[in-house]
Amino acid sequence: MSNTPDSVVRTYTEQHRTAFLDDLAAWLRIPSVSAQPEHDEDVRRSAEWLSAKLSGTGFPVTEIWETPGAPAVFAEWPSDDPEAPVVLVYGHHDVQPAAREDGWSTDPFEPVIRDGRMYGRGAADDKGQVFFHTLGVRAHLAATGRSAPAVHLKLLVEGEEESGSPHFRALAEERAGRLAADVVIVSDTGMWDENTPTVCTGMRGLAECEIELHGPAQDVHSGSFGGAVPNPATALARLVAALHDPDGRVAVPGFYDGVTELTETERALFAELPFDEATWLRTAASQATAGEAGYSTLERVWARPTAEVNGIGGGYQGAGSKTVIPASALVKLSFRLVAGQDPAHVQEAVRAWAEARIPAGVRHRITFSPATRPCLTPLDHPALQAVARAMGRAFGTKILFTREGGSGPAADLQDVLGAPVLFLGISVPSDGWHGPDEKVELDLLLKGVETTAHLWGELATALR
Amino acid sequence: MSNTPDSVVRTYTEQHRTAFLDDLAAWLRIPSVSAQPEHDEDVRRSAEWLSAKLSGTGFPVTEIWETPGAPAVFAEWPSDDPEAPVVLVYGHHDVQPAAREDGWSTDPFEPVIRDGRMYGRGAADDKGQVFFHTLGVRAHLAATGRSAPAVHLKLLVEGEEESGSPHFRALAEERAGRLAADVVIVSDTGMWDENTPTVCTGMRGLAECEIELHGPAQDVHSGSFGGAVPNPATALARLVAALHDPDGRVAVPGFYDGVTELTETERALFAELPFDEATWLRTAASQATAGEAGYSTLERVWARPTAEVNGIGGGYQGAGSKTVIPASALVKLSFRLVAGQDPAHVQEAVRAWAEARIPAGVRHRITFSPATRPCLTPLDHPALQAVARAMGRAFGTKILFTREGGSGPAADLQDVLGAPVLFLGISVPSDGWHGPDEKVELDLLLKGVETTAHLWGELATALR
């Protein structure tokens, strides 16, 4: 193999593999479980460990950013090119809870390498994916002979992602000046599978709503009053039943306003993915697919907005029977949103739709939780193409495109910074996020190193 | 006043008033709460007290009938006319729980007379109404000069009515020979109000059903899978929403098969009742009426079958939100039935209707509880006219007709004995059944004595 930049990166990565894995294992040993107060000090230790490691990597600026909860780590490495674009990498250093008795084969906080995989809580979500950036930037310098990256590089690694990022948006707003970037790279997702490297182009947004209907002042006897007063549980069921039309479309007027429709190009690329319905149904623990007519399963979960009941309740739910007309009933709805939809507009539409359908004699309370915006980077965006090229160089194969059906704090960065969000996730579904025996495939982890080693040059060129 | 039978009855009743009330008070002092095991012995004491009292009244046969739960009291007084019709009176000697701290002004088991009312648990429901039969039959003999009643009189006073009569049907079936009667008189209901004496002509039946729908094998993430798998809570809501048509009629095919429609005569008599919607809504704790188009509120609760949700539940119902597609959802439905409807047919119809509407990929479980039949005695039935005449003689005013919207064990007697069931209830809505400060109006209680004093002669004539 000639001494091309790609082969230099590969060789550099191989040479530093052992030390890199030893370092990652050391980080995984810190049980930075943000959801468990007894690990508060471990989360802080994790932040300090990462900050020191980033200094050692060469970042001239590393800071611990306090929040009312767990601390985040910020690092910055200015480019030697003053015209270089600014790139902000997002990840998190906290992890999900884990205990041996949850079904782990080994101690979740004592990482082991077995069959080419490193097992340990956080190996994939998200320490492994944050960590490949450290060796990646060194490989980038080694391959290009530069003394500083081709982009102005910033890292923000938060400590509360597994607890719902309660202070993340406030942190981003407060530090917006320091975080300002031309593009955000989120390293906290995954790719299709081991053999199908993909780039995620967006996540759905989320609007959540609770509707409570009140009928009689207290539960009343269904013999004495049944058939002659409004039943709030029935009224609620009618509301929920009216959420969708017979084609599975959300029937709330105005709900689809502004929706960015899938392009034929993106549909064609989705269709190239090796989707197997039986496998997907197993993952979904479901017996059948369902949903909006005219769309494939992947299109439904990635690119179409939805309305789902997350919970419903009212009246007597215990054993046996109790012949009452319930005093009240409640439904928790969540709406996944796609690019082009405005959460505030959706909330207003849902409220108007619901209020118009509540029968006489039934009082209501409709409350919305803070919404999460959708985010989407168009396929032809130069930064997205740069990510795909960097990944293609590392994997040596065609890169396809996915989206995520879920919603995440990345959208806050898009919102606050006004920058497009790209997803560079080098993890696979079998990595077991949040479950026992979480692992990372070492080969893929090193592809992550290589991808980021190529990425800064690709982005510098693409965004010039 | 001349020495007519009616005046003899009135005089006899007045003469025995004090002893009668003292006796009732003694019975009310026995806290025969069938729902509370610590009162098991009190329930037995109550049965023994009543049995002894009935012997003292003159019933030649009095027996304690054991059940797997609380004992019932049976008494029999053969007529001196061998051709006389056989009448079975039904009541119960157990009472609802009661404690001073529930809001009673005085000890619930230490009866007091205040402002022409006797306060105490069971005063109206149902000891008072059982007890007026004791003085009533003596007044009947005194007024007619007979040594035995004009009808062959049987009394069955159960001890588990306030606990749902779990052994009543089995008892009735086992003792069907002893209980055999031409007509059943139930003294466990009420009349319209203090100024409007009424006879109840029927009760609705009851079929209860639980429908459980299962979607994913466990709750799954609504971001990853929302919009692409069936949601059992949504499916359940659609089922419930389809229960009624836009006119408020139950939309289950076959549900109305056999329904005995209201006659114009009965509608006209219902319309004579001094119904006040505002007052009724207060009782119903509701802000509006609702229901089947084309029927008044009283017609809806008394004479029309219904489908009501008693409880619904599925997914996350706690505080905040949890973005899941629930694994399952459940609804408890109850159907009130009217004369002519067959509970088994309704159950089959509901099952077929539900099963036809469950979407692919959703499994279901539908279970029915034992049903209660409706009962109705036509207005022109001679026994019903006899009850109305007896009541009219006691009250000196026109007797109107009502029904009960609820369901009760009386239907079991209709079923098992094949005899029409009539309701002689001399209690008013303000008597506070099941609540604190339960009371009986002494004037009405004595009208009950007079009514039963007239009833046996009226029935003997009517059924000859």
From TrEMBL, chains A, B:
One of its GO terms (molecular function) is dipeptidase activity. It comes from the Bacteria. Keywords: Dipeptidase, Hydrolase, Metal-binding, Protease. Residues 202-359 form the Peptidase M20 dimerisation domain. Its EC number is 3.4.13.-. Gene3D superfamilies: 3.30.70.360, Zn peptidases. It is an enzyme of class 3 (hydrolase). This is Dipeptidase. The lineage of its organism: Bacteria, Bacillati, Actinomycetota, Actinomycetes, Kitasatosporales.
